[in-house]
Design a protein that fits this description.
alpha/beta; five-stranded mixed beta sheet; single chain
């Protein structure tokens, strides 16, 4: 924050969960928390400034609609061999997961429960890169032939474009070559293990995220 002189400074973590980075690493690096204390003050005075540490983007209530929109968007864009009906489809929400903080998976599990309650899809499950159930478990977990995986990540970066496609069964060399050519690293839909899998875009590229950031600032300001 060097060079920032505004009397009120709002810090909005562009992360999914209230987990390791948002509750430990960032507050520690900003000097808001000492020794990873979990109950650090979210509003602190620093000389003539007031620092406001907002909630992360990924826990905002509107993320449910963003996930559903991503899932609907990818199958409508690639309706092969026909547009799958939601009741014939299992939706997976994929995230990172980490043993460093037990809250890291809660944002995804909350979205799973919220979407299950709407009874749109045949099944809704979480998947994680570093915790159970793992990304590659989706084929065995789904009772339906059709699967849609939505990466619950802020950016279309290393994890969503490279790591997860490989964990879903694509050859690492093929993923690297597609990325080099500027092509999607997953071909929708791809058939594996007798299932058809559609892989959506990360939520961070959704234009609505800008509104969520502003809403987080308004909430803290109030």
């Amino acid at each position: 924050m060097r060079g920032v002189f505004a009397p009120r400074v709002f810090i909005v973590p562009l992360f999914i969960s209230e987990g390791y980075f948002t509750e430990q690493v960032i507050p520690r690096e900003l000097g808001l928390a000492l020794n990873d204390q979990p109950d650090f003050p979210r509003v602190q005075k620093r000389g003539s400034q007031t620092l406001h540490y907002c909630g992360p983007v990924g826990t905002h209530d509107s993320m449910t609609g963003v996930i559903l929109g991503r899932a609907r968007e990818v199958v409508e864009k690639f309706p092969f061999p026909r547009l799958p009906r939601p009741k014939e489809t299992t939706l997976f929400i994929a995230g990172h997961g980490t043993g460093n903080n037990e809250n890291s998976r809660k944002a995804i599990e909350r979205q799973v429960e919220l979407i299950r309650a709407q009874a749109i899809y045949a099944e809704v499950h979480p998947l994680f890169m570093e915790e159970e159930p793992r990304i590659g478990d989706c084929y065995a977990m789904a009772a339906t032939r059709n699967l849609v995986v939505v990466p619950f990540f802020i950016s279309d970066g290393l994890h969503s474009q490279e790591d997860i496609p490989v964990m879903l069964g694509e050859a690492k060399a093929a993923v690297a070559e597609r990325l080099k050519r500027g092509q999607p690293t997953w071909r929708n839909p791809t058939e594996k293990h007798g299932k058809l899998l559609w892989y959506g875009a990360g939520i961070g590229s959704e234009p609505h995220i800008a509104d969520v950031i502003l809403e987080r600032v308004r909430q803290m300001a109030a």
